[in-house]
Structure to design on (83 residues):
């Protein structure tokens, strides 16, 4: 149980870091990257289940989480946060 939570947090942190770098955000805050990655994990899992994909292994889960985090950040920047 504890190891699964640690695994989930490591995948979320890696996905959040990669997604912020891909989208050009200059945020070095670990907590922000973790939150973005965890939200991305849920969104990526939802997107994967809708289109019929399932992530296996750590690399697959990180890729799905990065896709979900990028989609989440895009939706946030496009519709929620107005300049």
């Amino acid at each position: 149980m504890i190891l699964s939570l640690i695994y989930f947090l490591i995948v979320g942190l890696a996905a959040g870091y990669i997604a912020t770098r891909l989208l050009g955000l200059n945020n070095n805050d670990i907590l922000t990257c973790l939150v973005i990655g965890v939200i991305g994990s849920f969104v990526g899992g939802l997107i994967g289940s809708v289109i019929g994909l399932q992530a296996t292994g750590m690399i697959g889960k990180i890729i799905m989480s990065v896709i979900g985090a990028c989609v989440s950040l895009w939706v946030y920047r496009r519709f929620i946060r107005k300049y």
